Amino acid sequence: MLSTPRLSDFRVNVDTSVGTRVSTLVDTIADTRSMLARWSLALVLTLAAVLWLPLAARAQVIEATEARIEYQDGGFELAASFDFDLPPVLEDALHKGISLYFAVDFQLSRSRWYWFDDKPVNTSRSVRLSYQPLTRQYRVSTGGLQLPFTRLKSALQFIQRVRGWRVFERNAVKPGESYHAEVRMRLDLSQLPKPFQINAVNTREWNLASDWRRFVYTVPTDLNAPPPPPPPAPLPPSAPLPSLPASPAVPAPAPASAPAAAIDQRGLTMQTVSYGLSPALLVQPASSQP
Q1: Of 220, 289, 271, nearest to 76 (Cα)?
Q2: Which residue in 65, 102, 106 sits closest to 86, CA to CA?
Q3: Residue 8 phi/psi, 5° resolution?
Q4: Can you say whether residue 29 is alpha, beta or left, with left for phi > 0 and alpha for psi between -120 and 50 degrees?
Q5: Residues contacting residue 88 through CB under 8 Å, at least 6 positions apart
Q6: Would the CA dihedral through 92, 94, 97, 102 be positive or negative?
Q7: Which residue intervals make up region (Disordered) (predicted)?
Q8: Rounded distance between C-alpha atoms, residue 125 and residue 103, angstroms
Q9: Which residues contact 203 (CB under 8 A, 6 or more apart)?
Q10: 3-class DSSP state of 15
């Protein structure tokens, strides 16, 4: 026999279904919040790592102190100076037989309002620094030039001073135009052995580089004119001349004695008398009176 359903049964069923849905919704929201929090934390950590690692790995320890362009014999040469100290890690690797390569990058560009910038010059030069343990000498090699040094400081001073590097020819630029020049120095990590390249990516001491040194260069209109003479170097202060010894005093002539003076006077009188009584005068006849 079927029983008549009661209203309380429906109420219980309805209340149970709504409570389950609300509980499920609350759990879903909580899980979503927790997941969003974890994602946000992971994103923040990732951004921090991305921003911090380059700053930690990049060490701006090379300073460009001078940069200029000089026209010489139909070409343009770069004169630049840098200042840096070799970190102990690199010095230790150098003494263990690892050669260090320093690259000098140079760029020349000209702005154009109607198109992209014109970049007629983009060149680089590499300088190799090595150590010879047998002779205990440092060797600097660039192109076909090799120079030995007994001190590391002297070798670094030669590398830091760039002179006579022809960066572009006369036909690469237009006379009277202004160009934007950029130069920098860096440790070329691509020349290192492979194991050192992997470790040097995120190591501060191995990321040795300078910022770009930028300056404006205007090409002279008269390139055939002789270059101005360099300013004269200041003369060193002259050393004081040594004082000469005083010359001995010359004694005054002693006055002649009285007998000597009388003898001189007598000789003068006799000479006068002899001239007056010469033989020519004695034999001359006397003139007759008319």
Answers
A1: 220
A2: 102
A3: -65, -30
A4: alpha
A5: 205
A6: positive
A7: 223-260
A8: 6
A9: 57, 89
A10: helix
- Considering Cα of 229, then 235, then 236, then 241, what sign does the dihedral take? positive
Q: How far is CA 70 from CA 73, 116, 166, 195, 251, in A?
A: 10, 27, 9, 41, 69
Distance from C-alpha of 27 to C-alpha of 173, rounded to nearest angstrom: 71
Tracing tokens 């006799």 back to the chain, one arrives at 270
At 177, the amino acid letter reads E
Q: What is the pLDDT of residue 198?
A: 77
Residue type, 269: T
Q: pTM of the full predicted structure?
A: 0.58
Cβ proximity of 71 and 220 under 8 Å:
yes
Single-letter code of the amino acid located at 132: Q
What are the tokens at 41? 């934390």
The pLDDT value given to residue 253? 57
> 57, 203 in Cβ contact below 8 A?
yes
Domain range annotation of the chain: 72-219
**Distance of alpha carbon 86 from alpha carbon 91, whole angstroms:** 6
**Shortest CA distance to 184 belongs to which of 208, 204, 157, 205?**
208
Reduced to 3 states (helix: H, G, I; strand: E, B; else coil), residue 150 is: coil
Q: In this structure, are residues 167 and 72 in contact, taking their beta carbons and an 8 Å threshold?
A: no
Q: Closest by alpha carbon to 105, among 128, 125, 130?
A: 125
Q: What parts of the chain have a pLDDT lower than 70? A: 1-27, 30-31, 33, 36-37, 39-60, 201, 225-231, 233-234, 236-290
Residue 97 φ/ψ region, left for φ over 0, alpha for ψ in the -120 to 50 degree band, beta for the rest: left
String of b and e for 11-37 (b: at least 16 CB within 10 Å)? eeeeeeeeeeeeeeeeeeeeeeeeeee
The closest alpha carbon to 183, from 278, 58, 66, belongs to 66
